[in-house]
Amino acid sequence: MSMALWIVQIALGLAFIMFGSMKSFQYEKARSSLPFVNEYSKGFVLFVGVAEILGGLGLILPYALGIAPILTPIAAVGIALIMVFAAMFHAKRKENQAIGMNILFLALALFVAIGRF
């Protein structure tokens, strides 16, 4: 079980770091590939990107380093909440493919949260 948790933690953490990095450091690329970015301010998109990077780091680093490991399941719960809101956001926009990804990430985040608590 521990190996499965580590695999999911690392995969989910790296995915969020990657998505957040694109929104934070490659704004023009995000504008061209993510339709919602054009409808919101650059500051909001930057905020979302930084939150995703911090969530991704929170999934991996605390437990890996043994420094406040309770932060890992807390980060997983935070990511799960973000995915619930993201699914609602995409449902309102009728972006069904994105909802599927949100539900997958929600399930993975809940797996980590339950497994690490």
Give a structural overview.
Helix content is 84%, strand content 0%. The chain has 5 helices and no strands. Helix 1 crosses helix 5 (96-116) and helix 4 (71-92) packs antiparallel against helix 5 (96-116). The longest helix is centred in the first third of the chain and has 24 residues, at 2-25.
How much is the average pLDDT? 92
Radius of gyration, whole Å: 14 Å
Class computed from helices, strands and strand pairing:
mainly alpha
SS summary, helix count: 5
**What is the string of helix and strand elements?**
HHHHH
- Proportion of residues in extended strands: under 5%
The strand count comes to 0
**What does the overall shape look like?**
globular
Low-confidence stretches: none
Tell me about the biggest sheet?
A: none
Helix content: over 70%
How many domain units? Answer: 1
End-to-end CA span: 13 Å
Provide a concise account of the structure shown:
The chain has one domain.
Write the layout of secondary structure elements.
Elements: H1 2-25, H2 27-33, H3 42-65, H4 71-92, H5 96-116
Structure characteristics:
117 residues, mainly alpha, 84% helix
